[in-house]
Amino acid sequence: MKKEVRRAVIAGNWKMNKTPSEAAEAVAKTAELTKGMNGCDVVLCVPFVDIAAAVDAARGTDVKIGAENVHFKESGAYTGEVSAKMLTECGVEYVIVGHSERRQYFAETDETVNLRAKAALSAGLKVILCLGEVLEQRQSGITSEVVSMQTKLDLAGISAEEMKNVIIAYEPVWAIGTGLTATPEQAEEVCALIRETLSGMYGKDVAEATTIQYGGSMNDGNAADLLSKVNVDGGLIGGASLVPEKFLKIVEAAQA
Ligand code: PEP
């Protein structure tokens, strides 16, 4: 199977940026600019409070709306949290789980990331599972071990059938929001390793069919080179997704 048979997905992660009115405007602009660009799926993952406005603005367009996290319980005494069912009822189609900022600042672990992914899949959401090494791990030469272990732990108990709704975002933590980007060769090497790990877990067909994104300071200047790599099937984009004109350039780069 070749790269061309996998669906490229360009997803924005707005993090804690934009109010609902700003979100409505940015979603509408992104939809207008990317209209007809069928070479990839275009997703914007937005703060919880922006979801209603974003879904409304995306209605009838090709832009899909995602959330930035989800809790793993269906309901209950979990102040401040949001369930998968709440998200689907609001019109959300995708959800990010395991973002490094959640792992770093909110004590999320591979175990809770795995629970979140399972809860999201059970509710019918598509999951963008983020994983990647921190700088010290790369410098110590253990990137492969770290990434393949995260892949196994975060996907534990998720079936081959459910993998149709899983996208993996390889995000080296040292490249997120830092302006430092992995070279296309570094991105390719780790995305290929993730695919090999998937092959061991699920077999070659599932591995070849899974979309694997790169994320970490992807922008209009470096997207084309990163996306040209055979195992890099898209991007998860933070900063550059906040400005529709910049995001457009990345979506354009994914059309080739
Ligand atoms: C991210 O938030 O997942 C990300 C990759 O951010 P940035 O593009 O700003 O590095």
Give the topology.
Elements: E1 9-13, H1 20-34, E2 41-46, H2 51-58, E3 63-67, H3 84-89, E4 94-97, H4 100-105, H5 110-122, E5 126-131, H6 135-139, H7 143-154, E6 166-170, H8 184-202, H9 204-209, E7 212-215, H10 223-227, E8 234-237, H11 244-253
Parallel strand pairs: 1-2, 1-8, 2-3, 3-4, 4-5, 5-6, 6-7, 7-8
Helix pairs in contact: 1-2, 1-11, 7-8
| Number of separate domains | 1
How many beta strands in the DSSP annotation?
A: 8
Radius of gyration (CA) equals: 17 Å
Unreliable segments (pLDDT under 50, ≥5 consecutive)?
A: none
Q: Helix-strand pattern, N to C?
A: EHEHEHEHHEHHEHHEHEH
Tell me the major beta sheet.
8 strands, parallel, barrel
Q: Could you say what the CATH topology is called?
A: TIM Barrel
User: In CATH terms, what is the architecture?
Assistant: Alpha-Beta Barrel
Multimerization state: single chain
First-residue to last-residue Cα separation: 18 Å
Shape label = globular
Looking across the biggest beta sheet, what order are the strands in?
1-2-3-4-5-6-7-8
Structural class label: alpha/beta
Can you say what the CATH homologous superfamily is?
A: Aldolase class I
Just give the CATH class: Alpha Beta
What hetero molecules are bound to the protein chains?
Answer: phosphoenolpyruvate
Helix content: 40-55%
